[in-house]
Design a protein that fits this description.
Elements: E1 2-7, H1 9-15, H2 22-29, E2 33-38, H3 44-48, H4 54-65, E3 71-75, H5 78-82, H6 88-105, E4 110-114, H7 130-143, E5 148-151, H8 162-165, H9 174-179
Parallel strand pairs: 1-2, 1-3, 3-4, 4-5
Length: about 180
């Protein structure tokens, strides 16, 4: 199996080497190749360009599909939320169109939308909560049930417990990785 992991620093920390080798290490030990397409500060809107139509998402979707993956984990959008002020409607459209473009290019791949894990401080952006953006991931998956599921990382711990499961209030630590 080949998995592609697309995201920002939250996903990058999730796959980072830790004392337990991290979840990506666990997948690799099971013979699953993991291609990490994640870096700190990443924004989905930057990756797909303005407009976020299915056609605009297609070139980036092709990049995610270039190794013909069996699974694509998407844990992106947090920087779009706090950084560039992408509205909830625009975020939902972008994510839905990216998922549609990925499926058109690699129709046999399962898409897993991993919700953002809880943080010690979850500010509202543009009058919408982080939970509203997380719910958008569920909405996109529900619209594509044949190939898309939600992995509810936000359910692993509460905001109050986030300090225990994150290295800095945002990024997952060893304890948090063990729960995801």
């Amino acid at each position: 199996d080949i998995w592609v992991a697309y995201g920002d620093s939250k996903l990058l920390y999730f796959g980072a080497p830790t004392t337990q080798g991290g979840p990506f290490g666990a997948l690799r030990s099971q013979g699953i190749d993991v291609v990490c397409e994640a870096y700190g500060g990443r924004e989905a809107e930057y990756d797909v360009g303005p407009g976020a139509t299915v056609a605009a998402c297609a070139p980036f979707a092709a990049k995610l599909c270039q190794c013909d993956p069996d699974v694509i984990i998407i844990n992106i959008g947090r920087n779009d939320y706090v950084g560039n002020g992408l509205t909830l409607a625009a975020w939902t459209t972008l994510l839905g169109n990216l998922v549609t473009a990925v499926h058109a290019i690699c129709p046999l791949a399962q898409v897993r939308l991993a919700t953002w894990s809880r943080e010690t401080s979850e500010p509202n952006n543009l009058s919408a909560s982080m939970d509203a953006y997380r719910l958008a991931m569920t909405t996109v998956a529900a619209a594509n049930p044949a190939f898309c599921i939600v992995v509810a990382w936000d359910q692993a711990w509460t905001v109050a417990a986030a300090g225990t499961y994150t290295a800095d209030g945002i990024h997952v630590n060893d304890r948090g990785q063990a729960l995801l």
